[in-house]
Amino acid sequence: MKLLAVFVAVLAVGTINAAPGGLLGGLLGGDLLKGTVTGVTDSLKNVLGLVLQSIIEIVSSVLNVLEQLTEIVDKLIEEATAAVEKIICTVQATLDKLVEVVYKVLNQLVATLAQNLPRKLSGLLINII
């Protein structure tokens, strides 16, 4: 229905077109059919030009939005990478401290065993004998 309305509007505008041979020219003695065809052709060119211009503007807007989205995604990736690197550094530092504490505890355990084991072994040997 809308397409028919557009066609009728284009035909009407083209028919009324005051170009040489248009309806006005046809009424004044020109070729009515030739003027109508010329007027409709000119109107179609104008409509197609407007449609193409609108399409170009829409595509340009879409490209601008995509460019902005790309910038946002790039920024998010940078921030996420920095956050992950910070987390990795924190975890690594925590693990280093944990290894250090475990090492100290094991050293104390070995030192305690080294001091107490000979006494216990000698006491055990005395009891056996």
> What overall geometry do the principal axes of the alpha carbons give?
rod-shaped
Order of helices and strands: HHH
Give me the number of helical elements.
3
Q: Say how many strands there are.
A: 0
Helix coverage percent? over 70%
> In terms of structural class, how would the helical and strand content be classed?
mainly alpha
Low-confidence stretches: none
What gyration radius follows from the Cα positions, in whole Å? 45 Å
The amount of beta strand, in percent, is: under 5%
**Average of the residue pLDDT scores:** 79
Summed up, the domain count is 1
Largest sheet: none
Terminal residue distance = 116 Å
Keywords: Signal
Signal peptide: 1-18
Please give a structural write-up.
- The chain is mostly helical.
- It is built from three helices and no strands.
- α1 packs antiparallel against α3.
- The model has no long low-confidence stretch (mean pLDDT 79).
- Keywords: Signal.
- Residues 1-18 form the signal peptide.
Summarize the structure in short.
With 129 residues, this protein is mainly α. The chain has helices at 2-16, 23-27, 32-128. The protein has one domain (2-128).
Task: Give a quick set of tags describing it.
129 residues; 3 helices; rod-shaped; signal
Write the layout of secondary structure elements.
Layout: H1 2-16, H2 23-27, H3 32-128
Helix pairs in contact: 1-3
